[in-house]
Amino acid sequence: MKHREMMTLPCACAQLRRAARAATRMYNEELRASEIEITQYTLLMALDLAGEITQKRLGRLLSMDSTTLTRTLGLLLNRGWVRAEAGEDRREKLLSLTLAGRKKFAQARPGWERAQARLRAGLGERAWGQMETLLTGVASATRA
Questions:
Q1: C-alpha to C-alpha distance for 114 and 26, rounded to whole angstroms
Q2: Which of 19, 53, 74, 138 has its CA 20 to 30 A from that of 129?
Q3: Is the pTM for the entire model greater than 0.85?
Q4: Nearest-angstrom CA–CA distance, 131 and 133
């Protein structure tokens, strides 16, 4: 169904959640061959960009609640893709990619790139740029 045929919902949150579910399905389809989901790929991508980061800061960066972040990180830790080391404060965990995590990230990247290209083509260049700006603004506007 083309986006022009979809009903506009009066609730911004409902619209965002619907769009997020649809995008998640598409990205997961493209990542399926790499045996990774977009939630996991996103954490690998964030850790690749950040280098080493605390779990708390990673949660803030991705606007993820602690429980969801801990659960998803648990999968990545168990697969050996992420390393967690004690920080200066014993309660603090410093997270970083392992060599296996870097390899998984590189292996999954072509699927992610296909998903990005599909969405970009579906939206067009102008809307793509507007979406990036708008969604960053939504995340900033909702911070407490």
A1: 10
A2: 53
A3: yes
A4: 5
